[in-house]
């Protein structure tokens, strides 16, 4: 895929799906108490507003939207810096985003106080961001590698076609002449 935004959206969607599965597992193990949609929605709404059906829908939408934006940021970062260590780059960028949310945005807005006071929820957020970043980085690397391989094959095909066309359109000898071009060595003086 040529477009880094497209690669990022696909990687973000894959990452959001993966962290939702991880979060279900962490909630079953009683490590996490706050669902992801609630953590995503608390950025926009107050806690009582989040508990309404419309608040829940806004929380789910914001959680998906934040994942898509972060996936796009990872895709641009990898396309600018190269696909070497893409999983590590994706994980690092996602963890930075997690730290920004947990240490700056939530305290500044004075929201999710119970999430910040629960070590399980913080651990869950770090695990989620690690999984998201690793999967997003891997997905971007695969999509970028597929595009580069396709682009190289297309370029090679274009060069081959242009050589064939060049040979095909070389001027032909005049009809009815049997002249041969003979190259002679220059005479020594």
Report on the structure:
This protein has 189 residues and is mainly alpha-helical. The protein is built from 7 helices and no strands. It has one domain (4-145). The longest helix has 50 residues, at 119-168. The radius of gyration is 29 Å and the shape is elongated.
What distinguishing features does this structure have?
189 residues; 75% helix; elongated; mainly alpha; 7 helices
Percent of sequence in beta strands: under 5%
Helix share, percent: over 70%
Tally of individual helices: 7
Based on helices, strands and strand pairing, what is the structural class?
mainly alpha
In quaternary terms, these chains amount to: single chain
Evaluate the radius of gyration: 29 Å
Number of strands: 0
The average pLDDT is 85
The topology string of helices and strands comes to HHHHHHH
How would you sum up the major sheet?
A: none
Query: What number of structural domains do the residues give?
Result: 1
Low-pLDDT residue intervals, each spanning 5 or more residues: none
How would you sum up the global shape? elongated
Distance between the termini: 65 Å
């Amino acid at each position: 895929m040529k477009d880094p935004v497209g690669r990022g959206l696909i990687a973000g969607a894959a990452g959001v799906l993966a962290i939702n599965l991880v979060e279900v597992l962490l909630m079953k193990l009683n490590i996490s108490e706050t669902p992801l949609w609630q953590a995503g929605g608390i950025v926009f709404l107050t806690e009582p507003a989040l508990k309404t059906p419309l608040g829940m829908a806004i929380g789910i939408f914001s959680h998906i939207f934040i994942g898509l934006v972060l996936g796009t940021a990872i895709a641009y970062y990898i396309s600018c810096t190269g696909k070497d260590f893409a999983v590590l780059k994706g994980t690092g960028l996602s963890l930075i985003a997690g730290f920004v949310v947990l240490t700056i945005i939530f305290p500044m807005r004075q929201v999710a106080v119970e999430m910040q006071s629960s070590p399980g929820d913080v651990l869950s957020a770090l695990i989620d961001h690690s999984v998201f970043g690793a999967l997003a980085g891997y997905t971007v690397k695969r999509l970028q590698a597929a595009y580069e391989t396709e682009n190289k094959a297309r370029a090679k095909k274009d060069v081959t076609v242009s050589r064939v066309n060049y040979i095909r359109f070389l001027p032909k000898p005049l009809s009815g002449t049997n002249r041969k071009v003979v190259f002679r060595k220059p005479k020594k003086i």
